[in-house]
Amino acid sequence: MTSISNPMTSNEIRQSFFDFFAEKGHAIVPSSPVVPSDDPTLLFINAGMAPFKPIFLGQQAGLMVQGKEFRRVADTQKCIRVSGKHNDLEEVGIDTYHHTLFEMLGNWSFGDYFKEEAIEWAWELLVDRWGLDPDRLYATVFGGDDQDGVPPDTEAEELWASKTSIARDHILRCGKKDNFWEMGETGPSGPCSEIHIDLRSDEERAKTPGSSLVNADDPRVMEIWNLVFIQFDRQKNGSLKPLPDKHVDTGMGFERICAVLQGKTSNYDSDVFEGLIQAIAKDAGVTYGQEESTDIAIRVIADHIRAVAFAAGDGAMPSNEGRGYVIRRILRRAVRYGWDRLGYTEPFMHRFVDPLAAQFKDVFPELEAQKSSLQDIIRAEEASFIKTLGQGIERFQELTKGQNKVSGEAAFMLHDTYGFPVDLTSLMAREQGLEVDLDGFDALMAQQKERARAAGATATASANDATAWQLNPEASVKTLDALGEAFDFIGYDHFESEVQLVAKATLSTKKGDRHLVLLDRSPFYAESGGQTADHGVLESPTETLNVLDVQKGPHGFVHTVDRLPTSFSGPWTAKVDRVRRTETAKHHSSAHLLHAILRDTLGSHVVQKGSLVTHDRMRFDFAHFEQIPQETLADIQQQVNLRIQENIPLTEERDVSIDQAKERGAMMLFGEKYGESVRIITFDPEFSVELCAGTHVQATGELGFYVI
């Protein structure tokens, strides 16, 4: 492609996109955080449409912006793709166009305009406004699918021919793989129309038509914009039904279009990366562009610091699980490149937060606002890994010397002892022409997880076995399955209730016999969410059983008692130990206050990782990049006590739809499985709103004095 005189800067390109769609009546909205706050099933926002899922699912009509509903929206969305089908981590830095974090420019129509405007405006922006050569552009349309009974998208095909100046032979029909979008196995879906550009020289184009290279994985003939026309609803039986409202969802890779408009063949040569790359090269004392080995390392570091900084800024702290482990993997991959190819032996990545924050201060001001804490987070994580990195590399060399493959045992040992993510081991192996026995590694990881699971297992599995139970022949429910469906927990409203004994059992365990009973309903709280179970008694006119533990099971709650009842005959009354429950509730409510204040004080990256709530203490687990100073702990304690003194009343809401809870921004924990309806615990809507099934005080003043 010929060089371009006076090309737009990346900031000008982004603003030009916004201005164009503002002229077309779109609300320009800020990017959502790359860490989704309302979808615990999603690691990271990985596409521009992710924040708008409720609209596409019919849960909202449009997007509310400053009290006004918009059906036309445009934005740039921060995205991270490093897992699942979007895992291109191995290629990042090695080729010229893969990235872990990228911006996705998009324009959206929620039941407003459809194919005609989307196609016409896309061409107008690319050709008339940005000056791309129409002879280098190709448009693909959906070619139909016999299995789904969907014909070719002749509507889009004719619109390209009639509403734009594209050559007719540059309109190509393609299959379902590339030109049909689906949100999931069921739900909204529709055909796509992609715009591709041919960046080859005129000589190459004369020899081989670009149409033969579209969707052929040639980096010189690549997609620059995808227009998705959401017009169907995929049913559970696989059929497609037309949607009552049709939507437009478009996505344009920002880094890619900047390289195109600036006449660059590599995304890393555009000004999106240029300043950062030069800062890294200067810091490392090398010149970028002279040695491919160091160039790759610099590109990796430039890409990875973006992903780590943006993710940490939006709340994803490096850790050993979930999102945190993805960020840890990315950071450690970059640190290893810096160590191995640029000679870094001390933390260095944190130094590049400064130029990154300066570059994006106008479009993503959250980096500048959190610059100091982000530097601390990244520095601490680097220092931790560098302690074992050198030893791990030496051990890798020893394990692979004279070998033609890295065994699963070796990969597992490097992971377990030196903190090497397996993709880092795979990268190092590939550099030496070796493969890693990933199946062997996965098997050893599975064994480790199984050992951990077994170590924490109890006799619950046996308690779930229907053959272990003796049923009460007089009970109102006749089977354990029926009990599982009919069981009712009434402990939020009652400390005491008349109940029916439905079944009893004695199980032999290593710690001795466990005596168990099942009830038709129960006021006893079963251990869950970090909160320990209620204690109390079961009483009949002739005997009393002490309740020592309560666990959830498929047949209702399993109550451990000090002995089996001599008879099912009642009436039986279940009585919760009120003092113990009240003290436990105080500690659980204090955990919510502490959680909110930790996030306010230390940063939004603080998220509960675990907890223990008992009648006499509370433990709160979370990740932070450094030890908390005593003076900070004292301040946190004081803030909790101030909230207690305010006597904030509890607002408890039951059976709230999960979608409504998400809309309200209730705190949700990644990895937790939530049902269709949830319970929300609020202590001041502006302070603490969490999904929680535990027991709580009626107002914070009941907590008394709080001590850490």
CATH 4th-level superfamily of the largest domain: Bira Bifunctional Protein, Domain 2
Number of strands: 28
CATH top level of the largest domain is Alpha Beta
Distance between the termini: 64 Å
* Fraction in helix: 25-40%
Overall shape: it is: globular
What does the main sheet amount to?
Answer: 9 strands, mixed
Poorly predicted parts: none
Structural class: alpha+beta
Whole-angstrom Rg: 30 Å
CATH topology of the largest domain: BirA Bifunctional Protein, domain 2
Number of helices: 21
Arithmetic mean of pLDDT? 88
CATH architecture label name of the largest domain = 2-Layer Sandwich
Give the count of structural domains: 5
Characterize the structure shown.
The protein is built from 21 helices and 28 strands. A hairpin with a 5-residue loop joins β10 and β11. α14 crosses α16. The chain has five domains: 259 residues, BirA Bifunctional Protein, domain 2; 105 residues; 56 residues, no CATH class; 117 residues, Elongation Factor Tu (Ef-tu), domain 3; 113 residues, Threonyl-trna Synthetase, Chain A, domain 2 (Threonyl-tRNA Synthetase, Chain A, domain 2), CATH 3.30.980.10. The relative contact order is 0.07. The protein is an alpha+beta fold. The model has no long low-confidence stretch (mean pLDDT 88). Strands 1, 4, 5, 6, 7, 8, 9, 10 and 11 form a nine-stranded mixed β-sheet that branches. An eight-stranded antiparallel β-sheet has the order 14-17-18-22-21-20-23-16. It is 36% helix and 23% strand.
